[in-house]
């Protein structure tokens, strides 16, 4: 079959079904739609619960693997972080002392 022929046959069948649905009483159509929607939501809820159960089982399995795994004990003392002393303050003090000394020397030399 040619693609165009297939599309026209599908289109024709869809139009027949739409006409048939429009000829049915509205209350029956609405009731069927509600039931289909309810089934769809129920199926979705069941899938969601199954996924949650699978996720919980996977978490429990990983926790069991961690608990059964060989534990290793840390040997030796813990290392403590030591910060390096600030060098910028020391250099600042030294530089200000030099400046004051030179100023005082200049003052004494003037007298």
Automatic annotation (TrEMBL):
InterPro entries recorded for this chain?
A: CFAP_domain-containing (IPR051147)
What is this protein's name?
Uncharacterized protein
Q: What is the lineage of its organism?
A: Eukaryota, Metazoa, Chordata, Tunicata, Ascidiacea
